[in-house]
Amino acid sequence: MTKARTLADNYAADINQVSAGVGITGGGTSGTVTITNDMATTIAAKGDLVIGTGNDTYNRLAVASTAGYVLTVDSAETTGLKWAAAGSSFSGCALYKSGNQSVANATDTIVTFDSELFDTDGYHSTSTNTSRITIPTGKGGYYTFCVYVVWPDGSWAISNAALKKNGVALKSDWLNVGSGTYNTQGYTTIVSASAGDYFEIIVYHNKGSSNNILGDNNGTGATRFECAYLGA
Predict the structure, then answer these.
(1) Cα dihedral value 175, 178, 184, 185, nearest 10
(2) 0.70 exceeded by the pTM?
(3) What structural domains does the chain harbor?
(4) Contacts for 153 with CB less than 8 Å, ≥ 6 apart
């Protein structure tokens, strides 16, 4: 014989509460229960994306305002992504000296740069730490650096032009200086760099007295310092 169901039996078998989980709002214990998908309501316009920002968290990435843009990883952004032009956009700088700089005999000397041919992303300042090319936020990766130092005419033994990263030498170039023409030291090298790393040129000579490295007012024949971002 089957036992008749009581009201308590019926209640125990029914759903008596609805609770919302992550990404869901609403709930209740009686009457009409409404559940809302919070991810859906986060979207504000056609083309918006909901992007994870951490454990059980997310945020809205608005649709790109420019047609043809693509999603690009960028750790500096809240969502870790951003819209950017398709393909690789050039990033880098080219610095030069508009005038000469005196270098004392047998003394390592940091080269300063007061002028820029271009600077796409704030690699350099003409007023603060003018000797430095500093890697901007979001631009960590591989770089080509170009060093070009111009010395005056004269036969005076040797000179050196070194590229340093955070004060540590990466590459040096020694030159036996001759007479009859200007003397130049130039080379390129590829390095790995993180945001905040800085690079400088350090020069040296043993002429026996102070000597100049040369600049000019348009950069064509001046001591120069350049970098180009190759990618992460």
Answers:
(1) 0
(2) no
(3) 7-84 (no CATH), 92-231 (2.60.120.40)
(4) 179, 180, 181, 182, 183
